[in-house]
Specification:
Elements (H helix, E strand, L loop, with lengths): L3 H23 L2 H17 L9 H4 L9 H6 L5 H4 L3 H28 L5 H18 L2 H34 L1
This protein binds zinc ion.
Zinc ion binds next to helix 8.
Length: 173
């Protein structure tokens, strides 16, 4: 497979055309920035190789542990991580779920430490606030975010495929 440095170079090379294309298509600088930043984030640290101890995994620093269950659950280079659309979908849902669970754990812990009952009410209040915040974001921003996440990871998968094809062809020659 291409090394992390190759994947990084591809991601960085994609950023300017991604920005220009999104701006040309939508006429919006906000959306162009969002798509480009999501592409960079996805290519550099949210890509399919999070399914093993890899460079993108190391880039999460202290938050690396968030990906431990993911690495246990998902076999390296399986469709669940490297699938062209499925990979990003699974990672996005996984990260959202982990963050919600951590938030809930934090609330429980806070109530436990302070010896206060009513953690259920706090949790409901936080969830209501979260829902309200998420719903207040326009749909096109969510689409742009997901598109960028998908694009950065799809470039990774496509590079992996191209690499396999190339090494197989080389062997046959
Ligand atoms: Zn890979």
């Amino acid at each position: 497979m291409p090394r992390a440095r190759t994947h990084d170079a591809i991601t960085l090379a994609l950023a300017p055309p991604t920005f220009l294309m999104t701006h040309a298509l939508t006429g919006s600088y906000d959306l162009a920035w969002l798509v480009t930043l999501a592409t960079l984030f996805s290519g550099l640290m949210f890509n399919p190789d999070l399914d093993v101890r890899s460079t993108p995994y190391a880039r999460w620093g202290l938050l690396r542990f968030l990906w431990w269950p993911y690495q246990v659950l998902i076999r390296h280079r399986s469709r669940l991580s490297h699938g062209l659309l499925l990979g990003t979908l699974v990672r996005t849902l996984y990260l959202a779920l982990v963050l919600v669970l951590m938030g809930a754990g934090g609330i429980l812990l806070w109530h436990g430490i302070h010896g206060r009952p009513g953690s259920g009410e706090s949790m409901r209040a936080v969830l209501a606030l979260l829902k309200q915040t998420l719903l207040s974001v326009e749909k096109r921003y969510w689409l742009a975010l997901f598109f960028g996440l998908w694009w950065g990871s799809a470039a990774h998968t496509l590079a992996d495929w191209a690499w396999s094809l190339w090494t197989q062809t080389k062997r046959m020659l």
